[in-house]
Amino acid sequence: MRLTVGIGARPATGVDELDALVRESLPGPGDLAEVTTVSTVDERAAVAGELAARHGWDVVTFPARRLAEVRVPSPSARVAAALGTGSVAEAAALLATPGPAVLLSPKRASGGATVAVAAAAPPVTVVGIGADGFTGLTDAARAAVDSADVVLGGRRQLELVPGLRHRGTVWPSPLVPALPRLLAGVHGRAVCVLASGDPMHYGIGSTLVRLLGARNVRVLTHPSSVSLACARLGWAVDDVSVVSAVGRSVDALRRVLHDGRRVLVLSSGAGTPAEVWKILEDSGFADSEVTILESLGGPDERIHHDPGAAGPLTVVAVACRGAAGVPLVPGLDDSTYDSDGQLTKREIRAVTLARLGPRPGELLWDVGAGSGSIAIEWLRVHPSCRAVAVEQSAERAGRIAGNAARLGVPGLSVVVGAAPAALDGLDPSDATPDAVFVGGGFTAPGVFDRCWAALRPGGRLVVNAVTVESERLVAELHAAHGGELTRIAVNRAAPVGGFLGWRPMLPVTQWVVSR
C-alpha cells in the first residue's frame, strides 16, 4: 500500500515536531515504510522539503485555490481565512494521490501542525440486489458481479449470489471507520459492492460517493423496499415520509406523525414493528393503520399486521390517525419541553429561529442550551439539519436528550461541558457551524471569540441577552462587528383577581450578526 502524507504547518513549525506528528497519524506501526510522498500548500514547501529529505520521500505542493476545490470531511474556517483554502493537510493528501483516494485516519493536529494520511483506492461498482436474489438482477448487474475480483457486502447479500467463494468479503463491523483501509487494500483490483435494494436510498452507495467521489462510483440500482412497499399498498411514493431505523433511533418517527400522513419505517430487525407500535401509542396515534411488509420481492414475501410475528426484513407502513402531531414551525408551546425553567420562551424562540434561518443540511451550535429547545426546533425544520447542544449541567443535558427523542430528533448531539472548552473536542464534521446561538454563558471568557472563529464565512451568530452584564458585552461587540440589535418585550395575559392583566416577561436584547 502506497501512502501519501498531507501536512499543514505554521511557518515556525519545526521538522522534528512535524515528523513526530506524522508517526502518530499513521494508522499502523509499519506504515512509515509505505509512505512515498509528502504534500502541502505552496507556501509550506520548505518545511515539507525538510521532512521529505529526512525520509527520502517525494514532495508535491499545490496552490491554495487548487486545494480549496477538494471536498474534505473537516474544513476549517480559520485556515480558510488565513490561506484561502479550508483544508491543507487533508486536501493535499487526497490531491497528491493518483486516481480515487481515501483518508485512512482523521486529520490529527498538534501545536502548529496538522497531518492527514491518504491512499489510493479502486473505482467501485455498486449493485443493488433484492430479496429475489441473483435472478432478479439485470444483465449489466450480473456482469458486474461476475467480472469482479472482489465482491464486498453484508452476509445476507453475499449469500444471494451463487459461486462467490473466495471472491466474497463480508463487511467488517463497524463498517464506516474500516471502509477506507479496506478499499485501499484492494486497490488495483475490480471491486463490486452488493447493497440491499436501491444503494442510493439510505444505502452504502451514498457513503461510497462521499468517500470516493461520484465519478469513481458506478451504481446499478434495484427497486428499493420503499418503491416495492408503495406498489403493494397503492401509495404514491412522492406522498410518503420515510424513516430509517437502520443504524438510527426509531424515535425519528415522532417528527412525521400527523393525521392523514403516510409513513414507511425501514426496520433494523424483527423488533422494529413493536417499537413503532409503542411510539404510536405514546404519541396519541394508537388508531393508526399499521401494515408489516416482509421480504418484499422475494419468494417468501408476506404482508400482515402482527408485530409479534415480524421477521428481520420488514418495512412498517403507517397510515396515521390521530390529532396529537407536533407542528413543524418554530415556537412550540413551552409545555412541550421537560424543563427546570432554563427555556427560551416560545415567542422569543420563534423570533430566534427566524433569525438563525435554518436551511437544509446546515449545522447549528446551541451554546448554553438549557432545555435544548433552539437546537431541537432547528432540527425539526428539515431532516438533514444538524445541531450540537452544549450544556454544562449533566442533569440538563439528560433532559435535552429526552426532549429531542420525544420530539422526533434523536440525532441531536449533546455535549456536556462549559463553553468554550467544551467546543474543542467536537467531531471534525461538527467543528464549522453555519449558525451559532448563545443563550447562556455568553459573558464567560472566550465564548464569543471561540464561536466567532469557528463560524463559517457568511454564517450567522445570534445572542439573546437578558442581564445587564450580557447586554453590556453585546453592545461592545456590536460596536466592533456590526450586525443588528433588537429589543424584544413580551407580555402574557394572566389572572389579576377576577380580571385579566398583562404580566411582562424579562425583556431580551437580541444581537444578530453575520461573519
UniProtKB/TrEMBL annotation:
The keyword Transferase applies. Pfam families: CbiG_C, TP_methylase. Residues 3-118 form the CobE/GbiG C-terminal domain. InterPro entries: 4pyrrol_Mease (IPR000878), 4pyrrol_Methylase_sf (IPR035996), 4pyrrole_Mease_sub1 (IPR014777), 4pyrrole_Mease_sub2 (IPR014776), CbiE (IPR012818), Cbl_synth_MTase_CbiT (IPR014008), Cobalamin_biosynth_MTase (IPR050714), CobE/GbiG_C (IPR002750). It comes from the Bacteria. Keywords: Cobalamin biosynthesis, Methyltransferase, S-adenosyl-L-methionine, Transferase. Residues 124-306 form the Tetrapyrrole methylase domain. Pathway: Cofactor biosynthesis; adenosylcobalamin biosynthesis. NCBIfam families: CbiE, CbiT. This is Precorrin-6y C5,15-methyltransferase (Decarboxylating) subunit CbiE. It comes from Dactylosporangium roseum. The lineage of its organism: Bacteria, Bacillati, Actinomycetota, Actinomycetes, Micromonosporales. The gene is cbiE.
